[in-house]
């Protein structure tokens, strides 16, 4: 939308139309939801009022029916025979009256109709309340009777009252399996004689349990043809407490018109509705779940003749068809919106095409120029006073000026690049030469300092060795002479004599090591090609006694196959010194690893490496940089020359010696020897030596 001005213009043009239409849609939806919902609830409320009034009319109609019966000639004739002063009632009159009442009961659709004396009525606790309210006038009302009392009125009433209960969704599971009570619409009418005295009553009415005529009559009255959408079901129900005892709510959600409707008699009202209507006594006007679907529903409580809530009357219609129509209206409205947007966009596109084509062409030229093509906009076929024509002309002029400036800048840049390259090359050459001179100067200075130190140290050591050798030779000779002269008497001081000779020998060894360190050339042995593994095996044999004393486990990993040029005795000296140091570094039982392997670099073998690793106390970072200094040692009985001599021997062979150590973990010494020794290599005192923590 931002890259194409065509789409931006279309968007800005269509935005007001889109906002207007969308607002219209939302306003329409809002009105449908609010006002249609209110109208539905108002309708169901009116339907509920009609149902309540119809029930009242049923009771009024009953009174009219009983009044018609009592005023008929046949009833009056039979009644006069029954009221004669004969102390014993005329059985023929009674039979005639009962037959007449039975015919009228069947003709009028009543469930019971009987003539009852005042005494019998007074004895009946259900009729006693009605007697107090008659005042020689008919009275009607609702009444709930148990099975036994129904049977006393008529045996058929108890059978009609039976309703099997059905567990229902959104309702509490019933504790009993059936309902045997009956909900009656009962009318009690006094029958007077010629003197106006009341000795008899007409007792008649209907039972609502399983009675579908009344609910179907109310349904046909309220939900006639054309009052509801297609497939919407209008239903009416009478409840005894929370049980549907008379209803036209179908068991199936959408029953076929050809099939007989199975009614949801025995199902229960939802707990939410029961709480509000039965317990709180309020009217329910809202959507509610009715057996298997949602209905727009109205419920109102039913009161018996005592004023007690005994049930409910319900009127409502299914909600799904209204939702279907509502969604269909939204889809239709959305379709109209899309069509209007499409037509509006098409018309805007056609109307703005004359403006958009020059703009698109200008955009294409600009894109081509950015890609490096040398083109111009030229004539757009528009009037010269047109803003786009002026813009194209100015843009072409700008491109011409830019092309000339670019050519000048390119020429200057090429010259500058040549000069920069020349200066850079000169600076690189001088820098490399300076680096070489600095490195040479550093190496020369370091070598001079080292040589001066070694020269001074060699002269000092040679003088000291010369002065010490003469006394030690005298001491050693006199001790041998003393031992010889004493003969057997020397056994008393033999231990002291041996200790003196041993210490003189140790002094001699130190002097020889000092001379070897100060004048290594005098002690050099010939260098010959040697296999490393036999030398290491010989070292292990020589140091076996020292390792066994330390109780150290030795692990060998000897895999080297290459031949290197070394001085065998000197290499033995180096390895023995490292092995002994490793054994002394282990304070408790531990392990020493001896490894040999070929030294490979860039895929080629250049020599052999020897590793000696221990699990000793390790070397601190402070001591690690000084271990190859002469006379530096951490052992009480050490001379501090072993590692310095070893370093000198490896350095003269042109090899490398590396050490890595971690305190309380261990130390690893690694010696690298080349296939071809380089005795003439001039190294600093620590060249080829690497320090670092063991990882």
Brief overview, please?
By secondary structure, the chain is an alpha+beta fold. It has 17 helices and 19 strands. Helix 1 packs across helix 8, helix 2 packs antiparallel against helix 3 and helix 13 crosses helix 15.
How are the secondary structure elements laid out?
Elements: H1 5-71, H2 73-82, H3 91-108, E1 112-117, H4 118-123, H5 125-134, E2 139-145, H6 147-153, H7 155-161, E3 163-164, E4 178-179, E5 182-192, E6 198-207, H8 212-222, E7 234-240, E8 243-247, H9 271-279, E9 284-290, E10 293-303, E11 309-318, H10 320-370, H11 387-486, H12 494-518, E12 528-531, H13 532-542, H14 544-549, E13 552-558, E14 563-566, H15 568-585, E15 590-601, E16 604-614, H16 621-624, H17 642-652, E17 656-662, E18 666-674, E19 689-692
Parallel strand pairs: 13-15, 17-19
Antiparallel strand pairs: 1-6, 2-5, 3-4, 5-6, 7-8, 7-11, 9-10, 10-11, 12-14, 15-16, 16-18, 17-18
Helix pairs in contact: 1-8, 1-10, 2-3, 6-7, 11-12, 13-15, 15-17
GO molecular function: phosphorelay sensor kinase activity
Subcellular location: Cell membrane
Pfam family, one: HATPase_c
């Amino acid at each position: 939308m931002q890259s194409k001005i065509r789409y931006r213009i279309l968007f800005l043009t269509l935005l007001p139309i889109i906002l207007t239409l969308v607002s219209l849609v939302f306003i329409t939806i809002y009105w449908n939801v609010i006002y249609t919902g209110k109208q539905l609830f108002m309708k169901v409320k009116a339907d509920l009022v009609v149902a309540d009034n119809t029930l009242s009319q049923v009771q009024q109609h009953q009174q009219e029916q009983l009044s018609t019966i009592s005023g008929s000639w046949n009833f009056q004739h039979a009644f006069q025979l029954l009221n004669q002063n004969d102390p014993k009632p005329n059985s023929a009159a009674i039979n005639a009256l009962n037959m007449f009442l039975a015919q009228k009961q069947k003709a009028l659709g009543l469930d019971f109709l009987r003539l009852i004396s005042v005494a019998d009525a007074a004895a009946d606790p259900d009729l006693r309340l009605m007697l107090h309210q008659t005042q020689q006038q008919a009275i009607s009302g609702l009444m709930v009777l148990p099975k036994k009392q129904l049977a006393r009125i008529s045996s058929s009433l108890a059978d009609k009252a039976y309703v099997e209960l059905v567990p229902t969704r959104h309702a509490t599971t019933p504790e009993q399996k059936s309902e045997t009570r009956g909900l009656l619409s009962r009318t009690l009418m006094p029958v007077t004689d010629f003197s106006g005295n009341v000795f008899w009553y007409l007792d008649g009415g209907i039972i609502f349990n399983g009675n579908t005529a009344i609910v179907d009559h109310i349904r046909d009255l309220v939900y006639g043809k054309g009052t509801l959408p297609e497939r919407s079901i209008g239903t009416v129900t009478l409840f005894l407490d929370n049980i549907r005892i008379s209803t036209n709510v179908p068991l199936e959600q959408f029953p076929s018109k050809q099939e007989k409707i199975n009614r949801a008699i025995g199902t229960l009202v939802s707990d939410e509705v029961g709480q509000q209507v039965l317990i709180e006594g309020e009217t329910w006007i809202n959507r509610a779940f009715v057996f298997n679907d949602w209905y727009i529903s109205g419920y109102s409580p039913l009161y018996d003749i005592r004023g007690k809530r005994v049930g409910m009357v319900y009127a409502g219609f299914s909600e799904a068809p209204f939702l279907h129509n509502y969604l269909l209206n939204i889809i239709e409205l959305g379709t109209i919106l899309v069509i209007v947007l499409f037509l509006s966009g098409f018309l805007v596109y056609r109307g703005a095409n004359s403006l958009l084509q020059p703009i698109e062409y200008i955009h294409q030229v600009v894109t081509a120029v950015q890609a490096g093509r040398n083109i111009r906009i030229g004539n757009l076929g528009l009037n010269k006073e047109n803003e786009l024509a002026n813009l194209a002309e100015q843009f072409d002029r700008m491109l011409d000026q830019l092309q000339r400036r670019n050519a000048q800048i390119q020429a200057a840049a090429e010259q500058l690049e040549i000069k920069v390259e020349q200066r850079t090359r000169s600076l690189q050459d001088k820098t490399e030469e300076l680096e070489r001179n600095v490195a040479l100067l550093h190496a020369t200075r370091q070598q001079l300092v080292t040589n001066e130190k070694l020269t001074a140290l060699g002269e000092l050591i040679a003088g000291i060795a010369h002065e010490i050798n003469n006394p030690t030779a005298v001491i050693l000779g006199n001790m041998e002479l003393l031992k010889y002269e004493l003969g057997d008497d020397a056994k008393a001081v033999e231990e002291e004599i041996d200790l003196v000779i041993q210490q003189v020998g140790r002094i001699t060894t130190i002097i020889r090591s000092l001379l070897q360190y100060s004048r290594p050339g005098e002690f050099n042995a010939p260098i010959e090609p040697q296999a490393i593994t036999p030398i290491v095996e010989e070292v292990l044999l020589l140091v076996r006694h020292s390792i066994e004393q330390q109780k150290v486990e030795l692990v060998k990993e000897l895999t080297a196959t290459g031949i290197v040029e070394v001085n065998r005795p000197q290499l033995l000296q180096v390895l023995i010194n490292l092995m002994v140091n490793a054994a002394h570094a282990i304070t408790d039982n531990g392990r020493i690893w001896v490894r040999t392997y070929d030294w490979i670099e860039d895929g080629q073998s250049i020599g052999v490496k020897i590793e000696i690793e221990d699990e000793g106390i390790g070397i601190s970072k402070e001591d690690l940089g000084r271990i190859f200094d002469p006379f530096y040692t951490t052992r009480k009985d050490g001379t501090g020359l072993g590692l310095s001599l070893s370093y000198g021997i490896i350095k003269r062979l042109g090899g490398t010696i590396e050490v890595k150590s971690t305190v309380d973990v261990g130390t690893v010494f690694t010696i690298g020897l080349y296939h071809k020794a380089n005795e003439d290599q001039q190294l600093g005192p620590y060249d080829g030596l690497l320090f670092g923590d063991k990882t």
